[in-house]
Fold this sequence. Notes:
CATH topology: Beta Polymerase, domain 2
Number of strands: 7
CATH superfamily: NADH:ubiquinone oxidoreductase Nqo5 subunit
CATH architecture: 2-Layer Sandwich
Strand content: 15-25%
Largest sheet: 5 strands, mixed
Structural class: alpha/beta
Strand order of the largest sheet: 1-2-5-4-3
Helix content: 10-25%
Number of domains: 1
Shape: elongated
Amino acid sequence: xxxxxxxxxxxxxxxxxxxxxxxxxxxxxxxxxxxxxxxxxxxxxxxxxxxxxxxxxxxxxxxxxxxxxxxxxxxxxxxxxxxxxxxxxxxxxxxxxxxxxxxxxxxxxxxxxxxxxxxxxxxxxxxxxxxxxxxxxxxxxxxxxxxxxxxxxxxxxxxxxxxxxxxxxxxxxxxxxxxxxxxxxxxxxxxxxxx
Length: 195
């Protein structure tokens, strides 16, 4: 079965319920963020259940504030934030899944992260902690698992792996059996004791 085939659910078919609203919202976003919007993928034209807005990284904070605060959007809940390793350039995609608690709408925002030319590092992504405090831990997890750095994050450090861990386990080039065993406990950072 293709994701573009409507599936009956207790919530109904999203495309039927929200399709016209999504089209109006995407048109407004296109008008406001013309040069900063890279691509739009709409259901059912693409294999997606909700619209996907690809935005340039320098516009992410402004776009997310717009989607959160503008009447007719009200995407007030960051339902999930993650990343994917595409294995090609641009290497990573950071994914923001938004939900409107008032209207029950969903939308997805993505930005692409490329390798820095002539360096063994990747572009930094602006933090969105100022928009949603809940992004704090999500950005730390993305940093820990993928190595994507969030510029302006208040405390960007590992959250799942031991601080001594080398590498980022969810990258496609990370060895499947890349075990790292530590025989002693990790030292406690004294600055973390003052919570």
